[in-house]
Design brief:
- By secondary structure, the chain is of the alpha/beta class.
- Helices cover 42% and strands 15% of the residues.
- Helix 6 packs parallel to helix 7.
- The longest helix has 19 residues.
- The chain is globular.
């Protein structure tokens, strides 16, 4: 491996840390095709990783060596458990490493960041794992609290993880149905001006929710569950007058709900139900002068026992790295011109 930035001169003086891995097949998975996984870790931690027989040698500063060693041991453990080692999995481990206080004396399996790897949401088609400390808290809240708010910028997994939690509880028999809702307000368009019948008008607004469901269920099963009304996908306005019992209810893009709509929605909760409400308060598309119900709900409910709030930041973006840079740039511009 000579592709990474060489460690600093003073770092090279540290003795090499050698990690022995017994199973060569898992070691191959750890290294990745053309050692791409090692290169990703090298670039992130400014170390040099050398393949030696059934092991890896790590060169660099003492702290960087400890971090790289823990990452490598954790990823090897993933391979032993039959889990993937993709760039996203490495990125998740590096994020946990960055966000947790690091203790070089603790082995990898005792470091708090890696406990996130054991926190999973299992669905029919895939297993969802948190990739940041904030996502980890969010998953914990979704699986334990009755009313959870996930607030923050696009790309942080707010809605995706909430839908995954709903699917997991549904397939485990903890709820009888899934209800996914969105305000039908987007970037200046209104339903009355769109072509087609009501379903054709509404479906484009609901498409992100369909996309998430199709990630967790086989397509034919999604169709069957919708046909049987065990999954409902509908505009927020359709919730009026209903009592939603034994259901996992997700309200997406909640920043576009009015105050009256938000209160109406929250009071639909029935016995045995859970609610997840997601939104980005920097992306409100309501007409000028119409206050966001999400903004008010955050103020009114923040101290109510049993209600959980998770706040995502640009650092929690798990889409393309450029998305986080764009969000940070816009936030900086807004503050400078505010």
């Amino acid at each position: 491996m000579n592709t990474a930035t060489p460690p600093a001169q003073d770092a090279v003086k540290n003795p090499e840390v050698f990690l022995n891995f017994e199973n060569n097949r898992y070691l191959i998975d750890l290294c990745g095709e053309f050692d791409r996984n090692l290169a990703q870790i090298e670039a992130a931690l400014s170390v040099q990783i050398l393949r030696r027989d059934n092991g890896l040698g790590v060169l660099g500063g003492a702290d960087e060596q400890a971090k790289a060693s823990n990452i490598l041991q954790y990823l090897y453990g993933r391979a032993e458990r039959g889990k993937s080692i993709e760039p996203a999995d490495i990125d998740a481990a590096l994020r946990f490493l960055k966000e947790q206080k690091h203790d070089a004396q603790k082995p990898a399996d005792q470091i708090e960041m890696f406990k996130g790897g054991a926190l999973e949401i299992r669905t029919r088609k895939k297993t969802v794992e948190p990739r940041t400390v904030t996502q980890k808290k969010y998953v914990e809240d979704l699986m334990s609290k009755e009313l959870v708010f996930g607030l923050g910028p696009a790309g942080t997994g707010k809605t995706y993880i909430a839908v995954a939690a709903a699917v997991s509880m549904f397939i485990n028999g903890m709820v009888d149905k899934i209800i996914l809702a969105r305000p039908a307000v987007e970037a200046g368009e209104r339903l009355g001006f769109l072509p087609g019948d009501m379903k054709e008008k509404v479906d484009p607004y609901m498409q992100p929710l369909y996309d998430a469901l199709n990630d967790f269920f086989p397509a034919k099963q999604v169709e069957k569950l919708i046909e049987d009304k065990r999954i409902e996908i509908a505009p927020l306005a359709f919730m009026r007058g209903r009592t939603l019992s034994n259901a996992y209810v997700v309200l997406d893009e909640a920043q576009n709900a009015t105050t009256m709509q938000m209160k109406m929605f929250l009071t639909r909760m029935g016995e045995g139900s859970r609610m997840a409400i997601t939104g980005d308060m920097s992306q409100i598309d309501l007409p000028r002068g119409v206050p966001s119900g999400l903004v008010e709900a955050e103020k009114v409910l923040r101290d109510v026992k049993g209600v959980a709030f998770t706040y995502f930041k640009a650092e929690d973006v798990v889409r393309h790295p450029m998305v986080a840079k764009i969000i940070i740039a816009y936030d900086k511009h807004s503050k400078n011109n505010g």
